[in-house]
Amino acid sequence: MTNNQLHSYDVSNVSVCTKREEISRTEYTVSQISNVIKGTLEQKLYNVYVKGEISDYKIAQSGHVYFSLKDSNAILKGACWRQVAAQLDISWKQGLEVVCYGNISTYTEYSSYQLIVKHIEVSGVGALLLMLEKLRKALAAEGLFDEKRKKRIPGLPIVIGIVTSPTGAVIRDMLHRITERCPVHVIVWEVLVQGKEAPGEIEKAIRGFNTLPDNIPRPDVLIVARGGGSIEDLGAFNEERVVRAVADSTIPIISGIGHETDTTLIDHAADVRAPTPTAAAEIAVPVLHELRRRIEELYERLRLSLPNTISAIELRLEKASSALLNVEVVFRTATNKLAELSLKNRMITEQYLRLHETKLSNYYRLLNSADYRTVLSRGFALLKGTEPYAKPIRSIQQLGVGQSLVIELADGISVVTVISSVPKDKR
User: Fold this and answer.
1) Could you read off the pLDDT of 310-342 as tens digits, one per residue?
2) What's the first-to-final CA gap in the chain, in angstroms?
3) Cα 415 from Cα 425, distance rounded (Å)
4) Residue 324 has what pLDDT?
5) In what order do the strands lie in the sheet with 382-385?
6) Contact yes or no for 41/104 (Cβ under 8 A)
7) DSSP output for 251-288
8) How far lies 166's CA from each of 110, 170, 187, 233, 355, in Å?
9) Residue 244 and residue 236: Cα distance in Å, rounded?
10) Residue 185 has what pLDDT?
11) What CA–CA distance (Å, rounded) separates 78 from 75?
12) For residue 128, what pLDDT is reported?
């Protein structure tokens, strides 16, 4: 045996168990321990408020809503039953910050727990966004955001009015960009763009520009501007009084609030929304050297096209003159044709009248020959009763002894009395 195989042990403090110790224990089934956990959670976490952002929400066909609440460190499953969800005044949105009220319970089959929601309130930025959305819908329903209300921005303004803070990079950048592109007269109405007093000052500035006295140049376009910030920082531009002032303005307004991703309510009411204050300045004025170049191009095109235009006009005048000579010939030919037609029409009319005059004369003679008075002139007589409108007597059967009759002859009438009447077959 080598030294490497030798080991030294101190066994002075080692106790040796010579008999197996009996350990007392309680055994649970999986279901039992799950129910214990469920009962403990539901008892300890009953009627709790949990704040977080909505994530991965799903509205089932049954009407139940399943979702997750999360913060920067954890995620909690949640369920909102149909009866509760139907009474909530919220729009389910990804990332919406809410406070949920309810109970913590477990789903024992899968050893998971969740929050059973009884009520949800939007909180923080989410509550502000919800309020702004309601105001936006109300103002839109009034027609304040209709496209037909939008006014055209002038192509080359003489005076520009700017409503913004007098300090900071916004006004400096805007004035620099306007001077760089096309120097014009700029009037700045200094206002607070954040804080409690800001909405009143902004409204006053917008309405003030629209009612300037005659001795101050009236702007051709207004720019309402401010730099970027949180939704709370931009709150003044979401105030109803400011939105209504923008909508009421008779001067076209460009809104340049915050960064491109920022949207405020006055953006909807303004005639044009610019993504940034600097972009608003670019929209308000053209680039002067580009404008001059465009004018030069148009002048050159006009100079080159003018001779051709004059030649085309002269050609049209020559054609018009020729057409006037042709009109005289056409008029004379038409006049002669009209005279011929008039003569022919008169001859046809006279022939038609003579023909019908002959026919009318023949009809007149025929009518006279059928007149009973013509028959009376030949020695005949008309016998009829004495009553008004009596019909002629055509048979001896119509006569009675003592009957009065009227005899009409060619030269008069006579009233006679029947003494006797003898039928022809009894004579």
Assistant:
1) 888 888 887 777 666 566 677 778 888 888 888
2) 199
3) 27
4) 62
5) 382-385, 404-409, 412-417
6) yes
7) S-EEEEESSTT---HHHHHSSEE-SSHHHHHHHHS--H
8) 62, 9, 12, 17, 105
9) 13
10) 94
11) 10
12) 74
The C-alpha atoms of residue 42 and residue 75 are separated, in whole angstroms, by 19
pLDDT tens digits for range 162-219: 999 988 899 999 999 999 998 899 999 999 999 899 999 999 999 999 999 989 999 9
Q: Which two tokens stand for residue 156?
A: 């080359």
Distance CA 167, CA 179 (A): 18
pLDDT reported for residue 163:
96
pTM of the model: 0.50
Stretch (H or E) spanning 301: helix 288-369
How far apart are alpha carbons 93 and 53 in whole angstroms?
9
Residue 67 contacts residue 78 (beta carbons within 8 Å) = yes
For the chain, helix (H) and strand (E) counts, in that order, are: 10, 13
> Averaged over 80-103, what is the pLDDT?
87
CA neighbours within 13 Å on the CB side: how many for 103? 12
